[in-house]
Amino acid sequence: MFWLSAKRVWRGGIQSFFRNGFVSLSSVIIMTITLFIISSVFILNGLLDFGVSQVKEKVDISVYFVTTASEEEVLDVKMSLEALPEVSKVDYISSDQALADFKEKNKGDELTLQALAQLDENPLGASLNIKAKDPSQYEGIADFLNSDSNELLSASSTKIIDSVNYSKNKLIITRASRILDSINTVGLALAILFIVISVVIVFNTIRLSIYMSRDEISVMHLVGASTKFIKGPFVVSGMVCGIISAFLVVTFFAISTYFVTKYYGNYLVGFDLFKYYMGNFFQILGVLFGSGILLGGLASYLAVHKYLKN
Fold first, then answer.
1. Ordered domains of the chain (ranges, CATH)
2. pLDDT, tens digit, for every residue of 231-250?
3. What's the gap between Cα 12 and its chain centre?
4. Within a 13 Å sphere around the CA of 17, how many CA atoms are in the beta-carbon half?
5. CA-to-CA distance for 180 and 184, rounded, in angstroms?
6. Is the pTM of this model over 0.90?
7. pLDDT of 120-158, one tens digit each?
8. Contact indicator for 278, 285 with CB cutoff of 8 Å
């Protein structure tokens, strides 16, 4: 009996969808726009995450050691830094590598290179480049490095750290941290705003569809149909709208991201839009079909419920 009723509801919902051609088409268009916005927010979030990671990648602090510091002492400091939960990565640059990098950077400055050649020893010490997991954590790392009580930073009671460039980069790091926080906050707020607006539009569109079927609902009431049986076909019709809309949006983004990446990829500063879309395809697919079915079915249920109460 249950399966027979369910079969009738699904058949009635699908028939209602195709019978109300223009209204169903309008619902599909509105639902497609809604799911397009949800997908756009998803992809925009990926682009923002990429931008955030790029900013984080460029922000770091460096620790410069005195020339008398041994490699073992510098590597001890490196190990102590890597043990900190705030630290993402620490790169070691030897004094020889620092000298080679300096010569490469100033290869066009003959006076500087000649002056450097007159020296009997390498004037540059080793250094460590430190990347934190979050820009806001650099201050704590700098405090750790500048702590006089840290025994790992000294050998034979002699300070081996020459300088830490956090104070020079502090303004840049602080601004970067604030920008990243603002981007995350604004992105979340926009996503919620667009989704709420989309749900309201879908609800009102489906409500209009149900209002146009008021005579049919009245007849079903007269012949003694249950409330669940009346609501069922409208819910199914709304779910069909969601499924068709999700399919259209998935197909559109698969094609558009491919061509955008192919012809305008240079403007995305390293962000491979098509690769990101395909890498998250099944997640996006699940979100779109789930959202389409949920929005269509729920909006239809609420709209017909409100109509029947009135």
1. 2-55+176-309 (no CATH), 67-159 (3.30.70)
2. 777 778 878 888 898 999 99
3. 41
4. 24
5. 6
6. no
7. 777 888 888 888 887 778 888 888 877 654 555 555 556
8. no
